[in-house]
Amino acid sequence: MSDIKQNKILITSPTTHLTFQGPFTQHDAVTATMKLRNPTQKSVCFRLKSTAPRRYWILPCNGVLEPHGETDVMVSLQPGVNFDPLLKKKNQHKVLIQTMFAPEEGEYDL
């Protein structure tokens, strides 16, 4: 198990939690940024999913990172969502990052 953790396909920053800073209003989305970095010698395809897709927009939600490349991902909490920072258990949604090495021939369709 430790070998898998040491040989990550993508490195995320922040590593475990995204924090959304208010004010939380009925009209404005609140955005947090996550950085994805490819530490490998191969191109990596990625896709991001949320456990609450109606509450969050994720841009880009998929893509390809070249070797040693990086990209910023914007995760936006949608306006009008009843969000109470004190209700921690209710507000602990997850973002899943799926990855795979890109095909060698360089032809891929997302």
Molecular structure report:
By secondary structure, the protein is mainly β. The chain is 5% helix and 37% strand. The chain contains one helix and seven strands; from the N terminus they run αβββββββ. It has one helix at 2-6, and strands spanning 11-13, 30-37, 44-50, 56-59, 62-65, 70-77, 95-101. Strands 1-2-6-4 form a four-stranded antiparallel sheet, with no helix packed on it. The chain has a three-stranded antiparallel sheet with strand order 5-3-7, with no helix packed on it. It starts with a helix and ends in a 9-residue tail after the last strand.
Strand order of the largest sheet: 1-2-6-4
Write down the overall mean pLDDT. Answer: 83
Written as H for each helix and E for each strand, in order along the chain, the element string is HEEEEEEE
Bin the helical content. Answer: under 10%
Note the main sheet. 4 strands, antiparallel
Low-confidence stretches: none
In percent, how much strand structure appears in the residues? Answer: 35-45%
Q: Give a count of the beta strands, DSSP E runs of length 2 or more.
A: 7
| Helix/sheet category | mainly beta
How many helices? The count is 1
Distance between the termini: 30 Å
Q: How many whole angstroms does the radius of gyration measure?
A: 16 Å
Shape descriptor reads elongated
